[in-house]
Every structure is written in structure tokens, then in C-alpha cells.
Amino acid sequence: xxxxxxxxxxxxxxxxxxxxKWLKNHGIIxxxxxxxxxxxxxxxxxxWYKASGLPLKRFFNTSGNxxxxxxxxxxxxxxxxxxxxxxxxxxxxxxxxxxxxTKNFVLVGFREAEWQEKI
Length: 119
Fold this sequence. Notes:
This protein is an alpha+beta fold. The protein has helices at residues 14-25, 42-52, 65-69, 72-75, 81-90, 112-118; strands spanning 5-9, 30-34, 99-101, 106-108. Strands 2-1-3-4 form a 4-stranded mixed β-sheet, sandwiched between helices. The mean pLDDT is 93.
């Protein structure tokens, strides 16, 4: 794939490390963005969510400490889409990663078979 893609990750995440290695091993050109240092804005998240075709809940890092501390498993079902997007934009650690953003698709999380098929 020749187009430059945006690879949003957390550098201390082992899954993100595997995904980065996979991209490099496949000769894919990408721009890396640390989700903790440069958190996604609500507008970006909205765009990625719509492009992904996934339910919004798939953008939450459900295994993260902050997600658990805020008891979001119980709270998300009562929140509007707009409230959820604002919450995601408030802290990059709430967002599932890695996220791969291209002009044609958005992938959330690293599932090698899915990446192999799309890229």
C-alpha cells in the first residue's frame, strides 16, 4: 500500500508493538501518533467511527484501568452517542488501540487476519 496511513497507538502497549512490527514487516508507510500524548479530538473520533462501520462501543478500551475505574461498562448504555464521543475525546487511554486510519477504511484493534485482508 503506497498511501501513507495514520497509526494511532500507545507506545507501552504490547498489542500496538505487534501491530507496528507487522506494518514494518509488510513495508507499509505510516505516520505514528501516540494516543496518550496526542489524544484524538471528538471530530476525528466521529469521522473514524463512521468510516469504520463498527459500533461506537468498539472504540472503548474496555480492558483499560480508566474504563474500569469510571465503571463505564454500566454507564455507556445510558449515554448518548455524542456523550460517548466526548468522553472518548477526553482521554486517549479510554480509546481502543491501535487504530489504523486510511482514506478508505479505519481498523480498530489489531487482528492480523483483518489487517492482512484490508491492507
